[in-house]
Amino acid sequence: MPTSKLYDIAIIGAGCVGSAIAQRLSKYDIKTILIEKESDVSMGATKANSGIIHQGYFTTKGSLKEKLCLRGNELIDEIGPKIGVEYERIGAIFCATNKIEHETLEGEYIKSQNRGVEVELITELSRIHEIEPQLNDNVITILHFPRAGIIIPFELTIALAEHAMINGVELNLEFEVVFIKRDTENDVFEIHSDDGKKIKAKTIINAAGIYSDKIARMVGLEDFIIIPRRGEYILFDKDSLPLKKIIFPTPTPASKGIVISKTVHGNFFIGPNATEIESKEGINTTSIGLNEIIAGARKIIKNLPFKKNITNFAGIRASTHQHDFIVEESSIPQFINVAGIDSPGLSSSLAIAEMVEQILKKKCGYKFIKKGDYIPTRNKQILLSDLSEKELSEKIKENPQWGQIICRCEQVTEAEIVEACNGPIPVKNTDMIKRRLRPGMGRCQGGFCLPKVMKIISREKDMILERVTKTGGKSFIVFRRTKLLSSEVIDKGDLL
Amino acid sequence: MENIDVVIIGGGPAGLAAALAAHDEGVSVAILERDHELGGILQQCIHNGFGLRYFKEELTGPEYAQRFINKIKESKINIFLNIMVMQITSEKVITTINPKNGVVHFKAKSIVLGMGCRERTRGAINIPGTRPAGIFPAGQAQRFINIEGYFPGKRVLILGSGDIGMIMARRCMMEGIKVVAVAEVLPYPSGLKRNQVQCLDDYGIPLYLRHTIIDIRGKERVEGVTIAGIDEKWRPIPGTEKTWDVDTILFSVGLIPENELSSNAGCKIASNGGPEVDEFLQTTVPGIFAAGNVLQVHDLVDFVTFEATRAGINAAKYAKDELTIKKDQKEVVYVKPGSDVGYVVPERICGIKNSKEPYGIEFSFRVKNPRQNIIAEIISKGKIIFKRKQKFVLPSEMIHLKVKLNPEDVGEEITINIIEQDSSINVIEKEMLEGS
Ligand SMILES: Cc1cc2nc3c(=O)[nH]c(=O)nc-3n(C[C@H](O)[C@H](O)[C@H](O)COP(=O)(O)OP(=O)(O)OC[C@H]3O[C@@H](n4cnc5c(N)ncnc54)[C@H](O)[C@@H]3O)c2cc1C
Ligand SMILES: Cc1cc2nc3c(=O)[nH]c(=O)nc-3n(C[C@H](O)[C@H](O)[C@H](O)COP(=O)(O)OP(=O)(O)OC[C@H]3O[C@@H](n4cnc5c(N)ncnc54)[C@H](O)[C@@H]3O)c2cc1C
User: Fold this and answer.
1) CA B404, B408, B409, B410 torsion-angle sign
2) Are residue A139 and residue A187 in the same domain, yes or no?
3) Domain span holding position A481
4) Residue B121: its chain A contacts at CB < 8 A?
5) Do A309 and A335 belong together in one domain?
6) Which residues have CB under 6 Å of ligand 1?
7) Which of A258, A310, B312, B370 could be B21's S-S partner, Cβ–Cβ 3.0 to 4.6 Å?
8) Which of A54, A102, A144, A163 does the annotation list as catalytic?
């Protein structure tokens, strides 16, 4: 077997957490690799969540969740603009409809003030409805956090991973870690994939989300287990409800409740519920769950625009019995666990990365030296919506693909898709294009653009259409040509 | 900026008929079509059944379209292909993009909207389960097979007994794709009777009425599906589940008029999803007309042609300043869908109050439930002003009423009702009592 390259640090899991760590470490002169089992980054919990930048509210005093969420909320202002990620601080409100709930909010108001967070408790009805006109009339108190915000989690994660790659971090996709061997003599870990590949690293950062307990067990650690808790959502069309705020009910000890929030792109969603499930792959939605979130949303807002919903989806939280994040060097030297990262993990991701950097420095002996050629920024891809008519005309003259609209709902051109196809992360399937540019995310859900996007991928990546998948693996979309010329041979039989 | 009298948005059957009709009125006409060819959705409808009313013969979709395309090619109508209309303003300035000429603006005297519709998706009807590859709107699967030339799957379940779903069931069987069943949430098929007979019965495909999908399985590609019967509140009935291993699910669960351009232009959108129009098929923005599936979802293309012909003539007249309607709100008569009527086109009548003689109007509407031995009646000022007996009505078949109404009989509002033949008197009496 050829000797494989030795890395300093291997990060397992390219969710927002793993990618944030990779981006943080990419400043330094060390060899880092980000390992991910799926065909793209951001395919775990990071793909399907509420996308809210929380502000420490309703966390336990002194917990890591409290500390890292507050810090993460600040760090986004520092890092977001540099890597070309859009977010909006539209503010969050928690709503009380009775006296007990009012008291809960009052309590949280005081706690939040102690945390030094900008917060307002409002009981004046006219102001409540001025702040969010869509609220039901039975809302008597709101707790307003003006600096909470919204972000698209996969856009953040793609940006973090790409920025890391620009600065030399390697990304190894479709590498499912199944086995880790400790070579104590040489102080290295051997990380093995399901298909016989091997990566060697001095340090492992376990950021594998719901599978972080499985990864930990591969080196003999049994100190935590992950309990998958599913959250389901319904997403609505753009402009179907003019929301101003992220709206929560008053949380109960069990959950933050059903949220109603707009997204950066102008859609809005309701969800999530919280159901403990057996399977870590259980990202299916259920009738019971969908009804539960509809009922929840109806409690706080007036007009749910039914008929305007465009899709439903679910994500899985990686909860633990500890009820707090685990971010520490484990009892195995050089093996760092970043686990139990359920909500507010997205908000905290940049701060978790900062904390991991400290652990590497203080506990693992890394003396970080800045790279001379570090590129501090990542440019966001130019989109049709960024261009004036004149600029667009210029672009079309240079490249006619700018004049070919592929997705009518989200208005995406062929030129944009071609550019994304050839971006730093190798694009292989239609969902990757969808997460980068949104064709297929609009009201027709790909009814119009899917065949067109498939053809572009097939052309740019030089593969036959039958090989183009939705999400990688065996998620083939079409399986054979209907008619063949006598000179043609069938591609290796059936794919399905 | 290109100045043109009448600009037609969309080159489907609606756009084609509107263009020809406007052209015959002697104005300059342009068709803007985003596809590389004219014909719209008909190009993928390679089955027959088109043209029985209009041409009195049975044609396939592409044949039907070609008859109009040929005429258009002989005419002076300007055809723009591969051009996407991005925006229409109430001043009738149209912004377009195309790969050859970039951003191009058109200024029209009048516009006919003919953008057609899009398919309702699985997400819009909240079907639970996983979200793997292999879930297609039926029309998209039709496109994959008939235009792109690819099999979208091998074993299929179809949800929804709309026309596209049933036609696709037959199409799949003909290509050797096994259709395990068609499930329909309603107690009756939602497409045309002839499609049920020719596409399902003839191929032995079971149709499960009052059933819906309660689960979809599979991580990468669809692996299975479970349907169940539903009760009157549309809740699944335990014990009625049926499960199949399939790799594909097609959704034929309705079409939605595509009106983002229209509403951005300021056109008011009616409850059926199409723009609100008057008897000239003019939207609430003067000089913008609508016809075809963008206005209301049609089951027969022939009626699209009839409707679009009217829109084209009126748009040309508007461009020539010959369409004089008083825009005074007092003159407007509103049309309301009454008992068992889903919606009515047109939603308002502008010319009747100024008319000296009986005024001709064409209504089209759909009933909410299948019924027998009914009367379609028009009521205004508490009186029946028109009635017609009909043996059968079905939600899948649009009803057309061509009537002449006396201006004096009509108040501020008229209502169209569907009632049973023998109870008609009672209903009217009841309504008169409630009204007083
Ligand atoms: C319903 C819901 C709502 C939420 N709402 C919010 C919110 O509004 N705000 C907020 O701050 N947080 C929210 N969260 C929490 C947030 O989504 C998560 O904390 C965050 O996404 C976790 O990121 P991660 O990188 O740790 O995990 P993940 O995104 O799950 O990433 C782990 C990665 O590891 C990979 N992996 C796993 N096993 C292996 C292996 N063997 N080999 C290689 N790779 C492997 C996975 O494929 C995955 O990509 C929500 C979570 C859920 C589920
Ligand atoms: C699967 C199927 C089966 C059918 N079967 C039958 C049958 O057996 N018999 C029958 O009589 N009828 C049938 N019909 C009905 C009939 O074909 C339709 O009602 C008719 O095609 C609608 O015509 P349209 O012009 O309104 O829309 P479309 O045919 O959809 O045309 C709209 C056109 O507008 C273009 N367009 C849209 N937006 C823009 C834009 N922004 N810029 C530029 N161009 C744009 C589109 O590309 C398209 O070409 C069937 C329909 C379907 C879908």
Assistant:
1) positive
2) no
3) 384-495
4) 310-311, 444-445, 447
5) no
6) A 12-18, 35-38, 43-46, 49-52, 54, 176-177, 207-211, 215, 231, 272, 315-317, 341-347
7) B312
8) A54
